[in-house]
Amino acid sequence: MKFLVIFFSLALFSFSHGYQIPTDLTLDDAKTIIDRFGSAFVAKTPNYESKEDSLKSFMHGSVSMIETTKISRLGSGSSNSPLQVSQLHFGIQLPYQVDLGLQSSLMAGSNQVQQFGGFMRWKFSKYGPFHISTTVHGSGVNFENQFAANLYGFVVAVEIQLGDLNFYAATGPLRATTSFQGQMFAGASGDLPTINTDRQYSHQVFRLSYNLKDWSLSGQTDWVKDFHSTILIGHSF
Q1: Kind plus residue range of the DSSP H or E element containing 130
Q2: How much is the pTM?
Q3: How far is 62 from 10, CA to CA, in rounded Å?
Q4: Residue 90, Cβ neighbours under 10 Å: how many?
């Protein structure tokens, strides 16, 4: 029943359409697409009310809104409608304040977008309402067989717990290794090899969460060259 609540909550936000990446690209265009789209699939670390003396599992659903105006002006051009990415997140709290989590795409404007990722988080220090943690994360995305990206990095975070409210701020490095199909580039003809790029970023995350018993509702903003926003709703067990 709780799974269905999360699933249908995602569906309410996920009226989306197939998104076509522009063709006739230059190498700089490809880097712009990676800066905007590839980093938007970074693994999310949902908030939940943890308990130090017991194991807990959690399940969240999320919908991210990715603005596409910059992409629409590249190469052959495309729609500037926002791309909506829906994901499911599953995880478990282990002893010593360690969390393990997995995520998978549910809908991403097209059923041809495939994404999978995971993280490990360790809350290693606590000072009153302040919690300090570090998270290692990795994810991969295949966007309609036009480009694929592997994203991995880590962040150091500070959380402030004030009653049912939780504020989270994190920063760390992010690396994206990507490959584009050669046919997407200007002047391409016949079978061409993939074009590979390797990009490094600074990644910042800001999240505000409200906990109601075992339920959590969060709004999150990720900044990687540009920003995208995410709504998360979930339940812990």
Answers
A1: strand 130-143
A2: 0.85
A3: 7
A4: 16
What residue spans define the domains of the chain?
Answer: 2-236
The single residue listed with the structure tokens 């991969």 is 140
Q: With 0-12 CB in 10 A as exposed, 13-18 as middle and 19+ as buried, what is 11? A: middle
Position 206, amino acid: F
- At 93, give phi and psi (nearest 5°): -90, 125
| Other CB atoms within 10 A of residue 111 CB | 11
Region of residue 144 (left: phi > 0; alpha: psi -120 to 50; beta: else): left
DSSP sequence for 36-51: HTGGGGPPP-------
228 CB contacts (<8 Å, ≥6 apart)? Answer: 40, 64, 65, 66, 67, 221, 222
Do 207 and 220 contact (CB within 8 A), yes or no? yes
Q: pLDDT per position in the chain (237 positions), as tens?
A: 554 444 444 444 444 445 677 878 877 888 888 888 766 788 888 887 666 655 678 888 888 888 888 888 887 877 777 777 788 888 888 888 899 999 987 654 455 678 899 999 998 888 989 999 999 999 998 887 788 889 999 999 999 999 899 999 999 999 999 888 767 776 655 566 677 888 899 999 999 999 888 888 999 999 988 888 888 888 887
CATH architecture for the domain at 2-236: Beta Barrel (2.40)
